Request: fold
Amino acid sequence: MMFFVNRIVLALVIGAMAGSLALGKNKRDSITFPENVKINGTLVKSGTYDVSFDDKTNELAIIKGGKVVAKVTGTLEKRAEKARRTEYRTANGTEGTQLVRVAFSGSDQDIVVGSSSASN
Reply:
C-alpha cells in the first residue's frame, strides 16, 4: 500500500513541476528593422533579427546568429485585438529611433519597452 502512495505522490510532484514549466514559456519570432534602432541604449543595425520574450523574467531579447544583440525588460499591456502578425513600434527621439513596443502574432498583449507614444 505504501508503494502506491509513494508513486501517487511522486506523480503529483512531477505533474506540478511540469505544469509550472508549461506556464512560463518563451515567445519567439523574427522581425526586420528597415533602419537602425536603439534598444535599451544599444544600437541595433538595420536587418532581420530573431526576437524572444521570456514570460518569467519579462525580458525581450534581440538575437542575431544565435547571439543576443540587445536585451530589455518589458511590461505587458492589453491590446484592443489580437495581432495579426508580429509587429513592432518605434519612436523618434533625441537619441534616434527607439523601440517602444512589440506584439507577437496572435497575441492580445503588447510588450512595452519604452514610452507609449510611438509610430511605426
